[in-house]
């Protein structure tokens, strides 16, 4: 094949109307500092804003988790470093109430301010226009607002620790009975109100992104970029945007209804004859279980909102470093679609222990088990992609392989919990904690780590250190498994979730050593993230400079300068083939990849 090199950086020939619909965008006045770096409408700057913010929140959420783990390993002992500052000069021990705030806000920060926004906000923003050949998002100002709507949520979540009554506590499903508390004890429960406001803000932020991503992918693909020439990263983002569009309004409506219960006296969720703080019984006509139905109708699809983009990105990375096409490209797309569809009809498995008609429980159980089928298709296709490949064990590849292996463990444990008789026993135990951390940390965040290393050269024009990247991977991988795999054993041993001092119960006392081992493994894992942050920040300034395509990859993003300039492409992008044309060359010395943007 004859190969044409991509054009050099610094040439701006403009794009026609078929290339994104922003024909006049290149004749632009250079914005000032605020317009360029703060209130930017450039999708690449917004992506970097999301990335920096979510990495900061990752450290915050991790710190909350370590405080939880310390309490479980050494109950009522002084919290190291910050204990006396937080809880007083004498002792420095947290209270049981503060412990419940910690685990609830840890989950809140990690889900709403880290995993979802780093996938959709950071990588979705950066990759969608570049990989489909567009010069920006369809709605740049809406894109800017989607980032800035996240900051009121950050203020609400973090600020809730400093209001009367403290932050939200006691888990997702204990909130509705508290809705009458504001009338019973004015001034208390303000943290709960702030939690609901924060969830509403992040919901609106995600909805803005969802509308933008769907419109951009449908309307702004480059010539030749058909749906079945799109990288699996874009398919993951597209299906995720559809999930958000259908699921988020339900959570937002539920949050507004609960806010009205708390603030203006409605009774959507407040039942009658509820007594709080020795006040008069409530006269509500609401239903507590309605909150659980509405919350989990969003929150189970949210699991796939946190997985599908990572699945797509990992597929791209595995193909690149196995130097092979993705095995079963179309079945991969169909399986992602099936996962998303089934994800909408399984929310009830979170409520098996809430009291459910056995026939309905059977329906939810069967539909939940069925999700294993498309998930299995993806796993076997990933393994087939790697099998027989010329594997390059780069940092992105190592993290992507970790994604696949951890997803398998998390998925297999999920089948246990799909069965009603088993779930009734393990529902509120640490087996559940182990499961969802294998899926949402072991899978999703290892995928994110791989994506950071893979697309960092395109974002900043420099390479992250491979040596330190592999050190970070090795420590994180080992410490992660040492932290979360033993939690399966804690759960089978009957250790409940949400208890500040489980050793008060004699039948759990033999689990103290295991909890201490888990805590120290978690501390090591948390310390390893400092390596990632240091590598990330230092590489921006001191990393090795790279050209357009340092990984010899095939997507349209690799034809742009590193980093891309205004409008992304210095010549109009055209897709001539799919994104996975890798293979052994016919003759020695010939290239083993064929980019989408090369005509012949």
Explain what this protein looks like in three dimensions.
Helix 2 runs antiparallel to helix 4 (about 95-130) and helix 2 (about 45-75) packs parallel to helix 5 (about 140-150). The relative contact order is 0.12. The chain is an all-alpha fold. The model is unreliable at about 1-25 and about 180-185 (pLDDT under 50). The chain has a single domain (about 35-275, about 280-560), classed as Cytochrome c oxidase-like, subunit I domain (Cytochrome C Oxidase, Chain A), CATH 1.20.210.10. It has helices spanning about 35-40, 45-75, 85, 95-130, 140-150, 150-160, 180-185, 190-220, 230-265, 290-305, 310-320, 330-345, 360-370, 370-385, 395-420, 420-425, 430-460, 465-490, 510-540.
What's the SSE blueprint?
Layout: H1 33-38, H2 43-73, H3 83-87, H4 96-132, H5 140-148, H6 150-159, H7 181-184, H8 190-219, H9 232-263, H10 288-305, H11 308-322, H12 329-343, H13 358-370, H14 372-386, H15 395-418, H16 420-426, H17 430-460, H18 466-492, H19 512-542
Short summary:
It is built from 19 helices and no strands. It is mostly helical.
| CATH fold-level label | Cytochrome C Oxidase, Chain A
CATH class: Mainly Alpha
Report the portion of residues in β strands.
under 5%
Structural class: mainly alpha
* Termini gap: 6 Å
Number of helices: 19
Mind describing the biggest β-sheet? none
Helix content: 55-70%
Summed up, the domain count is: 1
What do the pLDDT scores average to?
88
Radius of gyration: 25 Å
The helix-strand sequence is HHHHHHHHHHHHHHHHHHH
